[in-house]
């Protein structure tokens, strides 16, 4: 899927020569110390950061679409619109991201937010915001999930929900790249990232 990737941010080389392959139904964990470039790599795959070298492609994907158009990215900054209700946020994403695979209400149910559907999003706690961000994964079916420390702020039950979503995505043939410092109970391969020399 990717080879020889290099990334430069803020005038500094973050990583170089990074390659990996993720097949249908696989999960790849990005590991490594703070600042090594895990988030940058996810953002690069999502098309949010430019690469300075290397190639990346989604084999077997939709040739009419770019890789970022076939990927969901859930990062540290969420795209939640505070004045809209929880349900309106999901409807907005569903319309923006295209044909939904799961109805917004069902997506809320899946992440345990049904009771808060009519609340403005600004009233959500940190963990509830994270759950709403994760519900976005279900709004439109995309083969590639890019998750940056997705367990942040989640309680134990919500983590289990997250693992269930990722396992179901994998069982459905989807690919997941997840940056994490946690030992996730997922059948995943690891990419250990090391500081550029
Ligand atoms: N917006 C930015 N502008 C300039 N440099 C950045 C920016 N974001 C990150 N960097 C730099 O890129 C490098 C890699 O950061 P990145 O966030 O990708 O690391 P990480 O492995 O995800 O770290 P962590 O485990 O702390 O989340 C760091 O040196 C960081 O300072």
From TrEMBL:
Show the Pfam families listed in the entry.
ABC_tran
UniProt record, GO biological process: cytochrome complex assembly
Key words of the record: ATP-binding, Cytochrome c-type biogenesis, Membrane, Nucleotide-binding, Translocase, Transport
- Keyword Glycoprotein attributed: no
Q: Name one GO molecular function term.
A: ATP binding
According to the entry, every stretch annotated as the ABC transporter domain falls at: 1-196
Which InterPro entries is this protein grouped with? AAA+_ATPase, ABC_transporter-like_ATP-bd, ABC_transporter-like_CS, ABC_transptr_haem_export_CcmA, P-loop_NTPase
By sequence similarity, the record places it as follows: Belongs to the ABC transporter superfamily.
Entry protein name:
ABC transporter involved in cytochrome c biogenesis, ATPase component CcmA
